[in-house]
Each structure stands twice: as structure tokens, then as C-alpha cells.
Design brief:
about 280 residues, 11 helices, alpha/beta
């Protein structure tokens, strides 16, 4: 999920045939939102977020078309396009910066497909180490088909893919089920993060989620960081990683390369901009 979705344009009316044509005509574009290590204050990876550059309606955000893809059997080709584009563009970064992770959102609607072979095919095609790919699945999506999801997630994990529960805290999964999931990350939903400095209840919820993550041995990422005070509080509380508009807004790949070099978040072993493949 995209953190800090403020200032989004009004929803637009679109149709399934338009989306199908958009995928085939390559009208889609990826934006990347950086994630940072809160302890070292260095970039740790990115989340790939798909946009639709509509020829008449302009740039369309995923909230306006993901549900159409899910309802019209287009979610698989859309996901595969996103996965391949993200791995193609970021392959050189991953191979030069061994701790750099690339995250792609995974819909529950494709977890009962042959998604494992398709994911591994993309990983091998673009020569990205499997342990540098993160697949984010929402809590509610997992609970729609728990046994199917569990089987598929176990298969993905057997190939060293990192698995993440997105929007954690907004769903209805039980702790007894959570402990069965082969996940390595929890992403705290931005609804708890954005007001935690001024809302004691939100701060307590975030602290409880951090404790839960540590108990299960999971890395915890906070979404929706919009100011320094929130980032500093999360770091003090022991949150591992953060994402949000205070750090960086989603940006096209070319801007990401510039951001990595000039933002001040870059690690010392990040290769120079000129070395990156523009793919």
C-alpha cells in the first residue's frame, strides 16, 4: 500500500477494456517510494507502485483501477507487468547494493494461481537475488483464502522471497493464524502512525505492534511518516524501517536514481548514479 496518500486527485471513471488495452499498450508506469532504516538513517529499499498514464485522463492512481483489475481477471497480467518492470529497472541496484530490497504488492486474487513459478521466472529473467524481492500482501487479503494463501506463501518463502503483511492492524486476522504465516515483515498501517505524536492511543497501538513484531522475530516497517517528530519517535521505540512523505514521495525511476544520490539517505556503498542501468 502507498503510504501518505494525501493530495490524491479525484477518482476518475474508467472501464475494464481500457485497463486491458493499457496493459497491452504499455501505458503503465512505476513510481517508487523509498524505505529507510530508522537506526542508520540510510535507504533500505523501495516499494514499486503502479500508475496508469491514460492518454486522455492523465496519470491515474491505483486506487482507481486495482479493483477493476481484480473484478475482471486482469489482476494477474497487471501484477506480472508490475513485477517484471520493477525487477528490470532495479536489477542493477540490487546487484550492486546487496541490502537493497524491492517490494511489490501481491493481490489475494492471484495466490491460487501458478504465481510461484511466475514470480521465480521473473526473478531469474532479471537476475535479481530472490532474497531482495519483497512481496506485500494485505492482512485481509490473506484471510480471504487462508489455507490457499498459506500454501502459496510457504512455497514462495521456500525460494527465499521475503514476505510482508501490509496495512497491519486494519484487518481481522487472529494471532493464532499469524504465527503460522511464513512472513518476515509487518507494515504498520499509516492510520496509526500519522497521528501517533498527538494521539496516545495510536502511540500505544504502534508500541504494541512493535512488541508483537519483536516477539515473532519480524522486521517492522511504519507507513505514513510525515514529519521528523514521528520518525524520531519511531526510531526511539525501536521500529526498524520507515516510509512516508517526510522521507520521500513516490517518484519515477529516473528521479529515484537522483534521490538516492542526493537525498542524504544514501548508504556509503550505494553506487554512483552514472553506474545505474536506466532500463
Amino acid at each position: 500500500a502507498e503510504s501518505s496518500p494525501r493530495d490524491q486527485p479525484a477518482r476518475v471513471r474508467i472501464f475494464d477494456y481500457e485497463l486491458e488495452e493499457a496493459i497491452s499498450r504499455n501505458e503503465l508506469q512505476l513510481y517508487y517510494q523509498p524505505k529507510v532504516n530508522l537506526a542508520t538513517q540510510t535507504i533500505s529499499g523501495v516499494e514499486a507502485l503502479v500508475r496508469w498514464n491514460h492518454p486522455e485522463k492523465g496519470m491515474i492512481n491505483p486506487d482507481d483501477f486495482i479493483h477493476i483489475a481484480e473484478e475482471n481477471a486482469l489482476i494477474l497480467p497487471l501484477t506480472l507487468w508490475t513485477l517484471n518492470a520493477a525487477l528490470r529497472q532495479s536489477a542493477f541496484i540490487c546487484n550492486r547494493h546487496k541490502n537493497f530490497l524491492v517490494a511489490v504488492n501481491l493481490s489475494a486474487g492471484i495466490l491460487d494461481k501458478d504465481i510461484v513459478d511466475l514470480v521465480m521466472g521473473a526473478v531469474h529473467t532479471w537476475d535479481v537475488p530472490p532474497h531482495q524481492l519483497v512481496l506485500e500482501v494485505t492482512e485481509n487479503a490473506i484471510m480471504e483464502q487462508p489455507e490457499t494463501c498459506l500454501r502459496t506463501l510457504n512455497q514462495l518463502r521456500s525460494h527465499n522471497i521475503i514476505l510482508s503483511i501490509d496495512d497491519f492492524g486494519t484487518g481481522y486476522s487472529s494471532f493464532s493464524y499469524l504465527k503460522r504465516l511464513p512472513v518476515q515483515e509487518l507494515k504498520i498501517d499509516q492510520s496509526f502512525v500519522k497521528d501517533m505524536i498527538h494521539n496516545v492511543d495510536d502511540a500505544h497501538i504502534v508500541q504494541a505492534m512493535l512488541y508483537l513484531g519483536r516477539t515473532f522475530g519480524l522486521k517492522v516497517i511504519a507507513e505514513g511518516i510525515e514529519d521528523w517528530d514521528t520518525l524520531d519517535r519511531l526510531a526511539t521505540m525501536g521500529c526498524d524501517h520507515g516510509q512516508g512523505y517526510y522521507i520521500a514521495r513516490p517518484m519515477p525511476f529516473e528521479e529515484l536514481l537522483e534521490w538516492i544520490e542526493t537525498s542524504g539517505w544514501a548508504d556509503t556503498d550505494t553506487p554512483a548514479k552514472r553506474a545505474y542501468s536506466q532500463g
